[in-house]
Amino acid sequence: MKLFTFVFTSLFLLSAIAQTEVPIDSLGKLNLTYVNAAPSQSVQKAVSTGIVAPFPGSQLHLMAPMTPQQVQYLVADGSAVSKGQKLAMLKGSEVHHFTENLKAKTALLHISQKRFNANKPLFEANAISQSTWFSIAQAYYDAKLAWGHLDHFAEMFESDEDDDIGYLVAPEAGFFLYANGEKDAEATRLGSIISNSSLRIKTMVSADEASLISAIETANCQVQVARTDAIVNEYLTSVWSETLPESCNLKLGQRAQVSGHFQLKALKIPAQSVFYLNGQSSVFVRSDNVLNVVPVEVVGQSGSDALLIKATPQLNNQPVLSSSVSAVQGVLIGLGEME
Predict the structure, then answer these.
(1) CA–CA separation, 300 vs 14, rounded Å?
(2) Upper half-sphere CA count for residue 315 (Cβ side, 13 Å)
(3) pLDDT tens track for 268-280
Protein backbone atom coordinates (compact mmCIF):
# COMPACT_ATOMS: atom_id res chain seq x y z
CA MET A 1 0.00 0.00 0.00
CA LYS A 2 2.86 2.42 0.89
CA LEU A 3 4.57 1.61 -2.40
CA PHE A 4 1.37 2.37 -4.32
CA THR A 5 0.94 5.70 -2.51
CA PHE A 6 4.55 6.66 -3.23
CA VAL A 7 4.23 5.79 -6.93
CA PHE A 8 0.93 7.67 -7.25
CA THR A 9 2.32 10.77 -5.53
CA SER A 10 5.46 10.70 -7.66
CA LEU A 11 3.48 10.42 -10.87
CA PHE A 12 1.25 13.31 -9.75
CA LEU A 13 4.24 15.56 -9.03
CA LEU A 14 5.97 14.62 -12.27
CA SER A 15 2.77 15.44 -14.14
CA ALA A 16 2.59 18.84 -12.43
CA ILE A 17 6.23 19.58 -13.22
CA ALA A 18 5.93 18.53 -16.85
CA GLN A 19 2.65 20.37 -17.50
CA THR A 20 3.38 23.92 -18.70
CA GLU A 21 0.17 24.84 -20.52
CA VAL A 22 -3.57 24.80 -19.99
CA PRO A 23 -6.07 24.68 -22.89
CA ILE A 24 -8.56 27.52 -22.49
CA ASP A 25 -11.37 25.12 -23.49
CA SER A 26 -10.69 23.14 -20.29
CA LEU A 27 -11.45 26.15 -18.11
CA GLY A 28 -15.19 26.15 -18.67
CA LYS A 29 -16.95 29.34 -17.60
CA LEU A 30 -14.09 30.82 -15.58
CA ASN A 31 -13.87 34.59 -15.85
CA LEU A 32 -10.60 35.17 -17.70
CA THR A 33 -9.23 38.66 -18.11
CA TYR A 34 -5.84 39.72 -19.42
CA VAL A 35 -3.47 42.64 -19.10
CA ASN A 36 -0.62 43.33 -21.51
CA ALA A 37 2.76 43.38 -19.76
CA ALA A 38 3.71 47.07 -20.05
CA PRO A 39 7.35 48.21 -20.26
CA SER A 40 8.72 50.24 -17.34
CA GLN A 41 12.10 51.99 -17.37
CA SER A 42 12.31 52.48 -13.60
CA VAL A 43 11.97 50.01 -10.76
CA GLN A 44 11.22 51.17 -7.22
CA LYS A 45 12.21 48.90 -4.37
CA ALA A 46 13.24 49.17 -0.76
CA VAL A 47 16.98 49.43 -0.25
CA SER A 48 17.82 50.13 3.40
CA THR A 49 17.63 52.80 6.05
CA GLY A 50 18.83 56.22 4.94
CA ILE A 51 20.47 58.83 7.14
CA VAL A 52 20.58 62.60 6.72
CA ALA A 53 24.26 63.56 6.64
CA PRO A 54 26.50 66.34 5.30
CA PHE A 55 27.91 65.75 1.84
CA PRO A 56 31.56 64.68 2.20
CA GLY A 57 33.94 67.62 2.16
CA SER A 58 31.17 70.22 2.59
CA GLN A 59 31.75 71.15 6.24
CA LEU A 60 33.29 74.53 7.01
CA HIS A 61 35.64 73.86 9.93
CA LEU A 62 36.00 76.75 12.41
CA MET A 63 39.69 76.67 13.36
CA ALA A 64 41.23 78.89 16.05
CA PRO A 65 44.94 79.80 16.29
CA MET A 66 44.73 79.15 20.05
CA THR A 67 43.34 76.64 22.54
CA PRO A 68 40.88 78.33 24.93
CA GLN A 69 40.84 76.95 28.47
CA GLN A 70 37.04 76.77 28.28
CA VAL A 71 34.57 76.58 25.39
CA GLN A 72 30.97 77.14 26.50
CA TYR A 73 28.57 76.46 23.61
CA LEU A 74 25.61 78.82 23.37
CA VAL A 75 23.53 76.78 20.89
CA ALA A 76 22.57 73.11 20.78
CA ASP A 77 24.62 70.68 18.72
CA GLY A 78 23.18 70.56 15.20
CA SER A 79 21.18 73.79 15.58
CA ALA A 80 20.32 75.99 12.63
CA VAL A 81 22.24 79.25 13.00
CA SER A 82 22.37 82.56 11.15
CA LYS A 83 25.42 84.48 9.98
CA GLY A 84 26.92 86.52 12.83
CA GLN A 85 25.15 84.56 15.58
CA LYS A 86 27.17 83.83 18.71
CA LEU A 87 28.00 80.13 18.86
CA ALA A 88 30.27 79.76 21.88
CA MET A 89 31.86 81.71 24.70
CA LEU A 90 35.64 81.31 24.81
CA LYS A 91 37.37 81.79 28.17
CA GLY A 92 40.92 81.83 29.49
CA SER A 93 44.28 83.53 29.23
CA GLU A 94 44.72 82.16 25.70
CA VAL A 95 41.83 84.39 24.59
CA HIS A 96 43.59 87.44 26.03
CA HIS A 97 46.85 86.34 24.41
CA PHE A 98 45.10 86.05 21.02
CA THR A 99 43.71 89.60 21.15
CA GLU A 100 47.08 91.03 22.22
CA ASN A 101 48.87 89.03 19.54
CA LEU A 102 46.45 90.30 16.90
CA LYS A 103 47.05 93.91 17.98
CA ALA A 104 50.81 93.39 17.84
CA LYS A 105 50.71 91.70 14.43
CA THR A 106 48.47 94.48 13.09
CA ALA A 107 50.88 97.17 14.31
CA LEU A 108 53.88 95.35 12.81
CA LEU A 109 52.05 95.00 9.50
CA HIS A 110 51.32 98.74 9.36
CA ILE A 111 54.96 99.59 10.13
CA SER A 112 56.40 97.13 7.60
CA GLN A 113 53.86 98.15 4.97
CA LYS A 114 54.72 101.84 5.41
CA ARG A 115 58.40 101.02 5.07
CA PHE A 116 57.73 98.82 2.03
CA ASN A 117 55.74 101.54 0.26
CA ALA A 118 58.35 104.19 1.04
CA ASN A 119 61.30 102.16 -0.29
CA LYS A 120 59.69 100.63 -3.36
CA PRO A 121 60.23 103.78 -5.54
CA LEU A 122 63.86 103.92 -4.32
CA PHE A 123 64.47 100.32 -5.37
CA GLU A 124 62.89 100.93 -8.77
CA ALA A 125 65.22 103.94 -9.20
CA ASN A 126 68.25 101.85 -8.13
CA ALA A 127 68.73 104.15 -5.13
CA ILE A 128 68.99 101.21 -2.70
CA SER A 129 70.67 97.85 -3.10
CA GLN A 130 68.83 94.70 -4.01
CA SER A 131 69.78 93.03 -0.72
CA THR A 132 68.37 95.97 1.26
CA TRP A 133 65.13 95.85 -0.71
CA PHE A 134 64.93 92.09 -0.25
CA SER A 135 65.10 92.46 3.55
CA ILE A 136 62.42 95.16 3.51
CA ALA A 137 60.12 93.12 1.25
CA GLN A 138 60.66 89.93 3.24
CA ALA A 139 59.80 91.69 6.51
CA TYR A 140 56.62 93.09 4.97
CA TYR A 141 55.39 89.81 3.52
CA ASP A 142 56.24 87.89 6.69
CA ALA A 143 54.25 90.42 8.71
CA LYS A 144 51.36 90.18 6.27
CA LEU A 145 51.26 86.37 6.51
CA ALA A 146 51.46 86.43 10.32
CA TRP A 147 48.66 89.00 10.53
CA GLY A 148 46.51 87.14 8.00
CA HIS A 149 46.76 83.91 9.99
CA LEU A 150 45.20 85.65 12.99
CA ASP A 151 42.85 87.88 11.01
CA HIS A 152 41.04 84.92 9.43
CA PHE A 153 39.90 83.83 12.88
CA ALA A 154 39.25 87.45 13.93
CA GLU A 155 36.50 87.55 11.29
CA MET A 156 34.52 85.04 13.38
CA PHE A 157 35.61 86.34 16.79
CA GLU A 158 33.93 88.98 18.94
CA SER A 159 35.70 90.43 21.96
CA ASP A 160 34.23 91.16 25.38
CA GLU A 161 34.83 93.78 28.09
CA ASP A 162 36.67 91.05 29.96
CA ASP A 163 39.99 90.48 28.18
CA ASP A 164 39.86 86.76 29.00
CA ILE A 165 36.50 86.28 27.27
CA GLY A 166 35.57 86.24 23.59
CA TYR A 167 32.84 84.80 21.38
CA LEU A 168 32.89 82.51 18.38
CA VAL A 169 30.39 83.82 15.81
CA ALA A 170 29.00 82.06 12.75
CA PRO A 171 30.76 83.11 9.52
CA GLU A 172 27.76 81.93 7.51
CA ALA A 173 24.29 80.46 7.98
CA GLY A 174 23.81 76.72 8.33
CA PHE A 175 23.86 73.99 10.97
CA PHE A 176 26.44 74.19 13.74
CA LEU A 177 28.21 71.05 14.94
CA TYR A 178 30.31 70.83 18.08
CA ALA A 179 34.00 70.02 17.81
CA ASN A 180 35.35 66.67 18.93
CA GLY A 181 38.60 68.05 20.30
CA GLU A 182 40.46 67.97 16.98
CA LYS A 183 43.61 70.06 16.89
CA ASP A 184 46.93 70.26 15.11
CA ALA A 185 50.19 72.05 15.76
CA GLU A 186 48.81 75.47 14.84
CA ALA A 187 45.03 75.41 15.25
CA THR A 188 42.16 74.03 17.32
CA ARG A 189 38.80 73.13 15.86
CA LEU A 190 35.95 74.83 17.73
CA GLY A 191 33.15 73.46 15.57
CA SER A 192 31.93 73.35 12.00
CA ILE A 193 29.15 74.80 9.86
CA ILE A 194 27.11 72.75 7.41
CA SER A 195 25.19 74.77 4.84
CA ASN A 196 21.59 73.90 3.98
CA SER A 197 22.68 72.82 0.51
CA SER A 198 25.05 70.25 2.02
CA LEU A 199 22.33 68.13 3.68
CA ARG A 200 21.88 64.86 1.79
CA ILE A 201 20.41 61.39 2.26
CA LYS A 202 23.00 58.64 2.43
CA THR A 203 21.93 55.03 1.96
CA MET A 204 23.45 51.69 1.02
CA VAL A 205 22.64 49.63 -2.07
CA SER A 206 23.96 46.42 -3.55
CA ALA A 207 27.22 47.05 -5.38
CA ASP A 208 25.77 45.20 -8.39
CA GLU A 209 22.95 47.75 -8.66
CA ALA A 210 24.82 50.88 -7.60
CA SER A 211 25.26 52.13 -11.16
CA LEU A 212 21.52 51.74 -11.84
CA ILE A 213 20.01 53.81 -9.02
CA SER A 214 18.78 57.23 -10.15
CA ALA A 215 16.72 58.55 -7.22
CA ILE A 216 16.04 58.02 -3.52
CA GLU A 217 12.52 58.29 -2.14
CA THR A 218 11.34 58.87 1.43
CA ALA A 219 7.82 59.12 2.84
CA ASN A 220 7.68 62.82 1.90
CA CYS A 221 9.95 63.41 -1.07
CA GLN A 222 11.96 62.03 -3.95
CA VAL A 223 15.54 63.23 -4.52
CA GLN A 224 17.87 62.50 -7.41
CA VAL A 225 21.14 60.68 -6.78
CA ALA A 226 24.21 62.94 -6.79
CA ARG A 227 27.02 60.45 -6.28
CA THR A 228 27.73 56.76 -5.80
CA ASP A 229 30.87 55.84 -3.86
CA ALA A 230 33.37 53.49 -5.48
CA ILE A 231 34.23 51.69 -2.23
CA VAL A 232 32.39 48.39 -1.58
CA ASN A 233 31.81 47.27 2.01
CA GLU A 234 30.43 43.74 2.38
CA TYR A 235 28.71 43.79 -1.03
CA LEU A 236 27.19 47.24 -0.39
CA THR A 237 28.18 50.73 -1.47
CA SER A 238 27.08 54.20 -0.33
CA VAL A 239 24.80 56.42 -2.41
CA TRP A 240 24.35 60.17 -1.82
CA SER A 241 21.33 62.23 -2.85
CA GLU A 242 21.20 65.76 -4.18
CA THR A 243 20.38 68.61 -1.75
CA LEU A 244 17.32 67.83 0.37
CA PRO A 245 14.30 70.06 -0.28
CA GLU A 246 12.36 71.34 2.73
CA SER A 247 9.45 69.09 1.74
CA CYS A 248 11.46 66.08 2.92
CA ASN A 249 10.99 67.31 6.51
CA LEU A 250 14.14 65.52 7.70
CA LYS A 251 16.72 66.72 10.21
CA LEU A 252 20.47 66.28 10.36
CA GLY A 253 21.29 62.81 11.68
CA GLN A 254 17.72 61.53 11.27
CA ARG A 255 17.18 58.01 9.92
CA ALA A 256 14.34 57.13 7.56
CA GLN A 257 13.15 54.17 5.54
CA VAL A 258 13.95 54.81 1.89
CA SER A 259 13.43 53.15 -1.45
CA GLY A 260 15.46 53.45 -4.60
CA HIS A 261 14.47 54.05 -8.21
CA PHE A 262 16.59 51.84 -10.45
CA GLN A 263 16.97 52.21 -14.20
CA LEU A 264 16.06 48.66 -15.16
CA LYS A 265 14.19 47.32 -18.16
CA ALA A 266 11.16 45.79 -16.52
CA LEU A 267 7.54 44.89 -17.22
CA LYS A 268 4.60 45.94 -15.08
CA ILE A 269 1.90 43.35 -14.33
CA PRO A 270 -0.87 42.99 -11.73
CA ALA A 271 0.30 41.43 -8.47
CA GLN A 272 -2.46 38.80 -8.65
CA SER A 273 -1.05 37.51 -11.95
CA VAL A 274 1.95 35.93 -10.24
CA PHE A 275 1.75 32.41 -8.81
CA TYR A 276 4.31 29.89 -7.66
CA LEU A 277 4.98 26.60 -9.39
CA ASN A 278 7.75 24.31 -8.17
CA GLY A 279 9.27 27.18 -6.20
CA GLN A 280 9.39 29.49 -9.24
CA SER A 281 7.42 32.73 -9.70
CA SER A 282 5.35 32.34 -12.87
CA VAL A 283 2.52 33.85 -14.90
CA PHE A 284 0.06 32.55 -17.46
CA VAL A 285 0.50 34.06 -20.92
CA ARG A 286 -2.17 33.56 -23.57
CA SER A 287 -1.11 32.18 -26.93
CA ASP A 288 -4.07 31.48 -29.24
CA ASN A 289 -6.29 29.05 -27.28
CA VAL A 290 -3.69 28.04 -24.71
CA LEU A 291 -2.38 29.53 -21.45
CA ASN A 292 1.36 28.95 -21.22
CA VAL A 293 3.28 28.95 -17.95
CA VAL A 294 6.14 31.46 -18.18
CA PRO A 295 8.66 31.75 -15.31
CA VAL A 296 9.35 35.34 -14.25
CA GLU A 297 11.82 37.18 -12.03
CA VAL A 298 10.20 39.76 -9.76
CA VAL A 299 12.52 42.77 -9.40
CA GLY A 300 10.29 45.26 -7.59
CA GLN A 301 6.84 46.66 -7.14
CA SER A 302 4.81 49.57 -8.47
CA GLY A 303 2.32 50.85 -5.94
CA SER A 304 0.41 48.36 -3.83
CA ASP A 305 -1.22 46.29 -6.56
CA ALA A 306 1.39 45.81 -9.28
CA LEU A 307 4.72 44.03 -9.60
CA LEU A 308 7.71 44.69 -11.82
CA ILE A 309 9.31 41.69 -13.48
CA LYS A 310 12.48 41.39 -15.50
CA ALA A 311 11.75 42.14 -19.15
CA THR A 312 12.04 39.31 -21.67
CA PRO A 313 10.96 39.15 -25.34
CA GLN A 314 8.61 36.32 -24.40
CA LEU A 315 6.59 38.64 -22.15
CA ASN A 316 6.83 42.08 -23.73
CA ASN A 317 3.31 43.38 -24.55
CA GLN A 318 1.89 39.86 -24.23
CA PRO A 319 -1.55 39.17 -22.66
CA VAL A 320 -0.98 38.03 -19.07
CA LEU A 321 -3.81 36.39 -17.14
CA SER A 322 -5.00 38.71 -14.37
CA SER A 323 -8.07 36.90 -12.97
CA SER A 324 -8.94 33.38 -11.78
CA VAL A 325 -5.20 32.65 -11.57
CA SER A 326 -5.50 30.27 -8.59
CA ALA A 327 -8.29 28.32 -10.29
CA VAL A 328 -6.27 27.91 -13.49
CA GLN A 329 -3.28 26.80 -11.45
CA GLY A 330 -5.47 24.15 -9.85
CA VAL A 331 -6.40 22.80 -13.29
CA LEU A 332 -2.72 22.88 -14.29
CA ILE A 333 -1.63 20.62 -11.43
CA GLY A 334 -4.62 18.29 -11.83
CA LEU A 335 -6.76 19.29 -8.88
CA GLY A 336 -9.89 19.41 -11.02
CA GLU A 337 -11.57 20.58 -14.22
CA MET A 338 -13.96 23.46 -14.79
CA GLU A 339 -17.43 23.03 -16.21
Answers:
(1) 31
(2) 27
(3) 899 999 999 888 9
Contacts with 230 (C-beta within 8 Å, 6 or more apart), sequence order = 237
- The C-alpha atoms of residue 338 and residue 327 are separated, in whole angstroms, by 9
How many Å apart are CA 168 and CA 166, to the nearest integer?
Answer: 7
CATH number of 20-40+266-332: 2.40.420.20
Exposed e or buried b per residue across 12-26, where buried means at least 16 C-beta atoms within 10 angstroms of its C-beta: eeeeeeeeeebebee
pTM over 0.85: no
Provide CATH code, domain 45-57+198-262.
Answer: 2.40.30
Supply φ then ψ for residue 122, to 5 degrees. -65, -40
User: What's the CA gap between 295 and 162, in Å, rounded?
Assistant: 80
Sorted by where each begins, the domain ranges of the chain are: 20-40+266-332, 45-57+198-262, 60-194
Alpha helix (H) residue ranges in 242-337? 325-332
